[in-house]
Amino acid sequence: MTDLPPIIRQAPPEGTRRLLLTISYDGTNYAGWQLQENAVAVQQRVEEALEKLIHTPVRVTGASRTDAGVHALGQRFHFDTFSRIPADKYAFALNTCLPPDIRILAGREVPGDFHARFDAQGKRYTYRIHHAPHASALYRNITAHVPYRLDIARMQQALPDLLGTHDFAAFQAAGGTAKTTVRTLTEARLLQQGELLTLTVCGNAFLYNMVRIIAGSLLEIGMGRIPEDAFRTALATGDRLALGMTAPACGLELTRVYYADEP
Length: 263
Known about the structure:
Blueprint: E1 17-25, H1 42-54, E2 61-62, E3 71-81, H2 90-94, E4 102-110, E5 120-131, E6 144-146, H3 152-158, E7 164-167, E8 182-193, E9 196-203, H4 210-222, H5 230-237, E10 252-259
Parallel strand pairs: 3-10, 5-6
Antiparallel strand pairs: 1-3, 1-4, 2-3, 5-9, 5-10, 7-8, 8-9
């Protein structure tokens, strides 16, 4: 595939259109969303499919840089093109060129100054836990298996401490490059359906590994390894050591990216 320079926020070249596509993928076999030098990323497969379809190199810009093994139900990306293919037809066309673990779900044309990452108003993440004595042969790639006893009520009682606007510095893994660690969470809830525990977190933005740190800490609260008020302590002190482990990537899904012009 042809090497291209990184895209910065700017209007598309004259005569091109800017398109926004919604993509779903199973991240098990990929080194994350973003292009990698020595591994296959989802972005690479998308750009290869686009080049095959419109016969010219394309650089796409994603709304979120999901890590290796992380999945997406509603990742978004934009790109510029001279192609006249209608935006809503890209799903049908690209899905014939993509591997079965990557699927385009929808597409629409957006203004030339739109940016998939910088214009995102919020994101919703889902973390799934298989709480059972034995791991599942069927769901092993989309859930984190936890065979230990969990106090679900204790876990649920801890979550409201995360809501609102806080400095989430303690919830960022090493290597994070965010200019500010202040974030606003509007939803944090845990539901139990049989052996499946589903953590849903929604906010204006997230730090590097933030949701996985929340999920891992919640599990340790449920196991009694850290106090029920660990989230409150970490927010007050900024101390990463007040929290628990970073949960495995396989349980995490980027569920939706929100924009101001969408319902």
